[in-house]
Specification:
Structural class of chain B: mainly alpha
Shape of chain B: elongated
Order of helices and strands of chain A: HEEEEEHEEEEEEE
Structural class of chain A: alpha+beta
Largest interface: A-B, 43 and 54 residues
Distance between the termini of chain B: 24 Å
Largest sheet of chain A: 10 strands, antiparallel
Distance between the termini of chain A: 68 Å
Strand content of chain A: 35-45%
Strand order of the largest sheet of chain A: 4-3-1-12-11-10-9-8-7-6
Number of helices of chain A: 2
Helix content of chain B: 55-70%
Mean pLDDT of chain A: 82
Strand content of chain B: 5-15%
Shape of chain A: globular
Low-confidence stretches of chain B: none
Oligomer: heterodimer
Chain lengths: 231, 297
């Protein structure tokens, strides 16, 4: 009887073990793809949409160097770059091995079936509490990522891929982040009251969401990027 | 009329106090430019408030000539009325004080002509003062800080906003703003001229004009709903800052500024109408009072 019980248990738990192995393999493959890029310099347009910020689309250059250096610089003119936008570097999310991978099922993004994976950091004091990745298992790219941080709330990344898919680099990234309420004291700016002061909607009061849409036009991959760019 | 205007302008140019205004503007512009060259980033940090911790901004680019000019105008256009009152308030009372007013009206020119010439001379002075301001606040700032896109901080009702205008969309706004400021300051000139009719020395009308501007400016900046609704719309000082309307750029549904647009042109136009109406009323009143005035000095 005892001899029969062991194979039964093994048969019962084998799919779970295999599934865990599969999901680990998937994350490893995605990570391997991302790691083929040592550095890049990309030209992009950044469109920021934050309620208190009325700024035009800006031309930016995005510089990346392994393991986790990323800089967004304004090409021409002035730009407001969300500080959290450095997280568009996916190395920040899947880099290292100091996390546990959990299978969270499947979902669909833009009609594409994706695997939902949760990454739990092993370090209790890590700045990131939880990352949820939506991985396209066919093309081995991350289509969407949700990251919950200890201090800066939750931010989301939605990636659209095109001609640089082979490197795991997106053509477009929609970065969603939390913004605090921006408030200037009255009387500081001596503004012209044009009588067009619409009352502020209640839901806009605090902890609003902002987005930054970065559309890449070209990448120069693995051609070397100077460290001085990141200073 | 032209000859009379020339004489008036000659008289203004001979007064040392005329140049005080130009010297004051130059000095203030230089002080601002020096301060921002030394530590403009602190000012930008203060204005960014919480946005400073959420966004990266190249502050050295943000502190450029266009930004500087806006900051200077924002401060100076509250003080410049005092400088305009200094000249316009002296127009009639100065003549009375020197005892030349009776002599002047004994000449073959009508009293209406005399008032109009005095007013036009004050307007020319105002235009020259603003041109000098454009040179020292805009041109000099561009030379010192260069040009780039312009950031401006604004409180709109309950909201605080950070706006940005592309550098190729700025110069026409400054031209329009200076033109608007000319009309706004002409109201002060008309007010000071009107008050100068009642005095026999320059101090009274100058101080009275300045006091009226200060009181009305304070009321215009008090944020009390009852005053906002019932008093502010009637004060000319509420419209003095209408030049800023040329920098309030319209945005589309994605919050993107639309190049070449104005957020509320009707409001700017209405302010201009009100300022012109003020000028017309004050100038008409000046002519009316002066024509009936018994001139003894």
């Amino acid at each position: 009887m005892k001899k029969m019980l062991i194979p039964v248990i093994m048969i019962c738990f084998a799919p779970v073990a295999l599934q865990a192995q599969d999901i680990n393999e998937l994350v490893k493959k995605v990570k391997a793809k991302i790691e083929t890029v040592n550095d890049y310099e990309a030209a992009a347009k950044m469109k920021t949409n934050v309620s208190f910020l009325k700024v035009p689309v800006s031309d930016v250059k995005v510089y990346f160097k392994k393991p986790n250096k990323l800089k967004i610089k304004s090409e021409k003119g002035i730009s407001f770059v969300p500080k959290g936008a450095v997280s568009i570097n996916l190395n920040n999310i899947v880099g290292g091995d100091n996390y546990s991978v959990l299978d969270a099922g499947t979902d669909k993004i833009g009609g594409v079936a994706v695997k939902v994976v949760k990454l739990l950091p092993a370090d209790d004091n890590a700045p990131v509490v939880l990352s949820t990745l939506y991985i396209d298992p066919v093309n081995l790219v991350i289509k969407k990522a949700k990251t919950t941080t200890r201090d800066n709330g939750t931010y989301e990344l939605e990636m659209t891929y095109g001609k640089y898919m082979a490197y795991g680099l997106p053509d477009k990234v929609l970065f969603t982040f939390n913004t605090k309420d921006y408030k200037l004291p009255k009387g500081v700016t001596f503004d012209f009251d044009d009588g067009n002061n619409t009352p502020k909607p209640a839901d806009k009061e605090k902890n609003k969401k902002g987005t930054a849409e970065i559309t890449f036009s070209s990448y120069s991959i693995n051609k070397g990027v100077s460290d001085t760019v990141f200073q | 009329m032209w000859k009379l205007l020339q004489i008036e302008l000659f008289k203004i140019s001979r007064r040392p106090r005329t140049y005080i205004a130009f010297a004051v503007i130059t000095a203030l512009c230089l002080v601002f430019q020096f301060a921002f060259k030394m530590d403009g980033k602190s000012y930008v940090d203060m204005m960014l408030q919480s946005a400073g911790s959420e966004f990266e901004l190249d502050k050295s680019k943000a502190i450029n000539g266009y930004f500087m000019c806006y900051i200077i105008l924002n401060t100076l256009l509250i003080q410049v009325p005092i400088l305009v009152a200094l000249i316009a308030g002296d127009s009639i009372s100065g003549e009375a004080n020197m005892g030349t007013l009776r002599l002047l009206i004994s000449k073959p020119i009508s009293r209406t002509q005399l008032i109009l010439v005095k007013f036009l001379a004050a307007v020319v002075f105002t235009v020259l003062l603003l041109l000098w301001m454009a040179v020292s606040a805009l041109l000099l700032s561009i030379l010192i800080f260069g040009v780039d896109d312009m950031i401006l901080f604004r409180v709109k009702g309950e909201e605080s906003l950070i706006m940005m205008i592309k550098q190729d969309d700025i110069l026409w706004r400054y031209a329009a703003a200076f033109a608007f400021a000319t009309v706004a300051l002409t109201v002060i000139a008309a007010l000071a001229l009107f008050l100068s009719i009642f005095a026999e020395n320059s101090i009274g009308p100058i101080v009275a004009s300045v006091s009226i501007v200060i009181v009305c400016t304070v009321i215009s900046n008090i944020n009390v709903p009852i005053i906002d609704k019932n008093v502010k719309p009637w004060l000319f000082t509420s419209d003095l800052v209408g030049w800023k309307g040329f920098f309030y750029i319209k945005v589309d549904e994605d919050n993107q500024p639309i190049k070449g647009s104005l957020e509320n042109w009707p409001a700017i136009r209405n302010s201009l109408y009100k300022l012109f109406a003020n000028i017309a009323v004050l100038l008409s009143a000046s002519i009316l009072v002066f024509r009936r005035k018994d001139i003894l000095s």
